[in-house]
From TrEMBL:
CDD domains linked to this entry: FN3, GH18_chitinase_D-like
Domain Fibronectin type-III intervals: 174-255
EC number: 3.2.1.14
Domain GH18: 268-602
SUPFAM superfamilies: (Trans)glycosidases, Fibronectin type III, Galactose-binding domain-like
InterPro entries hit by this protein: CenC_carb-bd (IPR003305), Chitinase_II/V-like_cat (IPR011583), FN3_dom (IPR003961), FN3_sf (IPR036116), Galactose-bd-like_sf (IPR008979), GH (IPR017853), Glyco_hydro18_cat (IPR001223), Glyco_hydro_18_chit_AS (IPR001579)
Organism per entry: Streptomyces bikiniensis
Pfam families in alphabetical order: CBM_4_9, fn3, Glyco_hydro_18
Listed name of the protein: chitinase
Signal sequence range: 1-29
Keywords: Carbohydrate metabolism, Glycosidase, Hydrolase, Polysaccharide degradation, Signal
Amino acid sequence: MARSRPLTLILAGALAAGGLLALTPGAQAADAELARNGGFEAGLDGWTCTAGSGAVVTSPVHGGTKALRATPAGSDNARCSQTVTVKPNSTYALSGWVRGSYVYLGATGTGTTDVSTWTGSAPDWQKLSTSFTTGPSTTSVTIYTHGWYGTPAYQADDLSLYGPGGDPVQLPTAPTGLAAGSPTSTTVPLTWSAVSGATSYHVYRGTTKIQTVTGTSATATGLTPSTAYTFQVSAVNAAGESPKSAAVTATTTSGGGGDGGNQGLPAHALVGYLHASFANGSGYTRMADVPDSWDVINLAFGEPTSVTSGDIRFKLCPATECPNVESEAEFKAAIKAKQAAGKKVLISIGGQNGQVQLSTTAARDAFVTSVSKIIDEYGLDGLDIDFEGHSLSLQNGDTDFRNPTSPVVVNLIQAVKTLKAKYGAKFVLTMAPETFFVQLGYQFYGSGPWGGQDPRAGAYLPVIHALRDDLTLLHVQDYNSGPIMGLDNQYHSMGGADFHIAMTDMLLTGFPVAGNADRFFPALRADQVAIGLPASTQAGNGHTSPAEVNKALNCLTKKVDCGSYQTHGTWPALRGLMTWSINWDRFNQWEFSKNFDSYNWS
């Protein structure tokens, strides 16, 4: 998202371009090179890059054999920095070579006036230079380089800070107070006490370093349910890494209801929506006529009496609209027959036209009561949440998906937990959000730290996260979507295998929300994830041919046919596919379900 560049930076760039910065005092005789690993020949040693944005490359380079490549994403500007020991009341020269658009070089913590310089466009290597004088009590400064929001990756090399060196930095002591919070089936939150002089912390699971953070908390993700893990933390600064902390052990939970309600589902399942309450160009399909290919049948849709009432109603399509509709008794009997055959039948709430905003506790309670009534009336197995449009959004200041404060989000979470508690371990819970509400959260979350963003961006993430141990299936709609940035920091467009691979990889790998590494959305289990697609070209934008669907499945489950995208794992347990809809698949001669039935998962 475009942002206005601060006037001070523009003036700084103009001054640098005019050569006025050359008037600053020269380096003193006792000066020395103070930047550690400024040429990145030792990788990122000595440097910390926000949100995992930095990497070392072998081309292009300015000097030596390596250089920094950092990629802005969302509200992260790919800032790479290091803290350097300096002397008070001393003058320093900062310089570096950069390539790219809107690349900055600067220093903070000078004790006088912090400085920065930048270039708006450097198609080839360009030198940036500035200088500063430290304050009377300044003993360390932080030098940095960064790009700009929404711009491509930039390169930096041969960064230099020249001036009198300060007193040697002392190795930090080992962190204390390491504690584990309440685990989920796949995550363990960790906290510890700050260490004086530390600039970052390494987090270890067993002997494996799993994260580097700048704060005093982290969440270990991608863990196995019902498993004990041991964690340690070390403190890091320019002098090196401290000894590790005392170890703490935590055991992940078994998950809500044992496996999130997966009882009775096959290892690989086909999910479809049945137009039960309305007709469109695809025609009405009776419950009894749904082929056995479909393992989960979502009744579309239960809709509210008003946007904010929370009172959900469901009725079969009227005969005037659907002449071949079955009777209530026949419909209920067909549901029982499907369940006897091992199928799951759920009520889906929302859809394109069914806006649901649980903005009050009264709406929350009405939602629980009315949804329970539908489930009981038709003997259903659970609930599908298909909130679209403006059903979910985040209020200003609601910036942490782990601790949401927006009423429509908090009340939905509470309502679903109440339903889960009421119906028990076999309650099936699925969700069908759009990419805007999930994967877009990698770049943008709510209205953002400065406001002005669409408050719906990433708004499903707190719901998914809070209910992950109760969640049977998440099948994001990989259709009717604009281009979305993947974990490769490239944009992917719907309609081919690449889009489904990149979007699903995000769910199975996890990602920093809005580029904030301290707010990492943990990966879901593979058996909790299905890929959502339209069944035909008429069903929605982004239809994917059977051959491309198979390529996506091959890549995600076997790591073949991946094309240019490199996944972060292989997931043979990927649950399967979802489609809008059973009716449109019937209209299209059952092409989608036949392809699923013939796919070789082994």
